[in-house]
Amino acid sequence: MKKLTKQIVVNYHAFMAEKFDVKLIFRKGDIPQEVYDVFPSLNQFCNETITVDTAFLNNYAITIPNPFGKTLIYLPWVAGVVTRVSLYNQVRRLAHECQHAVQIKHEGDTHFAASYLGSPAMRANYESLAMHPELEIHFWYYGKPATAKTLSSMANKLKAYRCGADDIAVTEKHLVAYNKIVARGSVSSEAGKAAIGWLEERV
Ligand SMILES: [Zn+2]
Fold first, then answer.
1. Going edge to edge, which strands form the sheet with 71-75?
2. What is the distance in A from the centroid of ligand 1 to the CA of 170?
3. Which end of the chain is more exposed for a tag (fewer CB within 10 A), N or C?
4. Cα of 127 to ligand 1 centre, how many Å?
């Protein structure tokens, strides 16, 4: 297992923010108003898909398309500070969100938002692709691929995104297949490549 330090994780957040041209919003106390300011009413916008309430924002990171500036990434932790989220999970989860930033850049803010929120199947697809860097970082960190149990729990996270059993099953199959590629040492996601390339030189 690799050894992460607070300082490395702080610097990693700065590196990833710069690399993927995103603004990170850390959760210190209350949910920052900025999270709600981007869309006139994020809650209303997400109402049919994810309920962005305090419970959600206590536990989930969220990447917010922002037609007025940099893509925002809200993180329910402060970089390098371990309360409920370990240093490893900060690293892994930030890479996941940065992969969403890549998706947003490829598709444009409005198109991404409409597709992501438009159907559970599309949402599951975006999420499973954003899990690629997580599997890559898992392999880098532990020196072995994620277990079937981990893959299953990753896929089941999509329940919170109002994806149904069929979308979750498809996602789990996808993760099992991609994990086999990762187990051969492949790192092909943009966020995984950037993260592991940077970390390799420092950890
Ligand atoms: Zn995601």
1. 22-26, 71-75, 62-64
2. 16
3. N
4. 5
Of the pLDDT bands very low, low, confident and very high (cuts 50, 70, 90), residue 63 is very high
pLDDT tens, position by position, 112-136: 988 888 888 999 999 999 999 999 9
Distance CA 172, CA 201 (A): 32
Ligand 1 midpoint to CA 63 (Å): 7
Beta strands in 48-90 (DSSP E): 62-64, 71-75
pTM over 0.85: yes
CA of 158 to the centre of ligand 1 (A): 9
Give 62 Cα–ligand 1 centroid separation in angstroms: 7
Positive or negative, the CA dihedral 173, 71, 106, 115 is positive
Centre of ligand 1 to C-alpha 95, Å, is: 10
Closest CA to 162 of 117, 196, 130, 100: 117
What is the 66 CA–ligand 1 centroid distance (Å)?
Answer: 16
